[in-house]
Amino acid sequence: MHPTPEHAAPEDAEARRDIAPVICYPTDALPAPDLSAYRAARESWEKIADLRVPPREALAFDVPAGHFFRITSVEGPQVGDLNLFSADLSERFYSGKTRALHGTHLSRGDRMWSGFPTMRPLATITEDTLDWYGIDAFGGSVHDVIGTRCDPYTHCLLSDGGQYHHCCHSNLTRALAEARDLPLRETEALVHDVLNVFMCTGFTRDTGQYFMKASPVRPGDYLEFFAESDLLGVLSACPGGDCSSEHSSDTAACYPLGVEIYRPKSAPEGWAPPAPNAYDRSHGL
């Protein structure tokens, strides 16, 4: 938030404000995914799993490289917080760099990148039934990589010590610990910033604060991904429901989310698992 100014603006204040911005990371040289090849591979696929994430809980699921998975709305408007790992947990989704490359909200053709030093695509978004939403009059859009995940620590801070255990951070921690048989505190350190699936968010124009509003998702909508490597996904059905009013709540209407996993008959034409980033890691020494 910007405080009320205490210092007078200089004479050239407007000239400074009027300087045009420059994109930090131009992506012209970034190889674009061949969506036509991904779509062709879907034509002969077979559904191999159809899972349900219970409301206010999380579920872990494995997706082999070269497979597709969909996160689906099945009963009512509901948002989900997604963590992605390599199957051996050595790589994690890097939301900050993904945001820097693709923008604050993801859709078809964008990729979910892993952190350093591998920095390669973990998954590619191949379909998005909410792509019609675009950016609304408030600056809001869907599927953001700006929110971190609702968590019990912030809840405790803002509710004068309140203890709530079904925040997405805790949901993800429990589900990951169970999936890989890990101690809870070791697991918590692996949970990371998320892709907020179906969530409608933005920043207020006056104060720059992160906002949420009712998700436009409805039963039948889905966000579809292609696994670029062997993945472990962990998805939380957020206790905020459609996030139209509050987070971390036992009163918001919440619904399950679906996870469908598909095996194509053959890999997309020309596809190969992405290699780790080619930087030599010498760091100038």
Overview of this structure, please?
This protein is α+β, with helices and mostly antiparallel strands. The chain has one domain (50-263). The protein has 6 helices and 12 strands. The protein has helices at 13-17, 35-42, 95-102, 152-158, 168-180, 184-188; strands at residues 46-53, 58-63, 68-73, 80-86, 111-113, 121-128, 141-144, 195-203, 210-213, 222-227, 231-237, 257-263. A hairpin with a 6-residue loop joins strand 8 and strand 9. The termini are far apart. The model has no long low-confidence stretch (mean pLDDT 96).
Topology:
Elements lengths: L12 H5 L17 H8 L3 E8 L4 E6 L4 E6 L6 E7 L8 H8 L8 E3 L7 E8 L12 E4 L7 H7 L9 H13 L3 H5 L6 E9 L6 E4 L8 E6 L3 E7 L19 E7 L22
Antiparallel strand pairs: 1-12, 2-11, 3-10, 3-12, 4-8, 4-11, 5-6, 6-10, 7-8, 8-9
Number of domains: 1
Give a short account of the largest sheet: 6 strands, antiparallel
H/E element order = HHEEEEHEEEHHHEEEEE
Tell me, what's the shape?
globular
Tally the helices. 6
Helicity, in percent? 10-25%
Stretches where pLDDT is under 50 for at least 5 consecutive residues are: none
What is the SS-derived class? alpha+beta
Q: In whole angstroms, how far apart are the ends?
A: 40 Å
Radius of gyration: 20 Å
Strand content: 25-35%
